[in-house]
Amino acid sequence: SEEMTSEQKIQAFYDSEQNAKIEWFWDAGFYVTLGDEINGWGTMENFRTFEEVEMYLYNTSNPKKPRAPL
Fold first, then answer.
1. What is the value of pTM for the model shown?
2. 43 FRET partner, CA 20 to 30 A, in 6, 18, 34, 35?
3. Residues 24-56: tens digit of each pLDDT
4. Hey, is 61 helix, strand or coil?
C-alpha cells in the first residue's frame, strides 16, 4: 500500500466536510480544534509536529480506517 502524501491527508479531511482550526505559537506545538464558530468547538488537541496533525485529521476524517500515529 502506497503512503499518502501530506496533501492527500489534508484533502481527505476537507472532503469529509468537517471543520477544524489549526493554530501554533512559537514552540508550543500545533493546536487543533474540531468544529467551528457556528456549530461549536470540540476539544483542543496539541501536537508537537505537523505530521501528527495530518494523521489526527486523517484519522478523524476516516474513522473506519484509522492508522497508527507515527
1. 0.78
2. 6
3. 999 999 999 999 999 999 989 999 999 999 999
4. helix
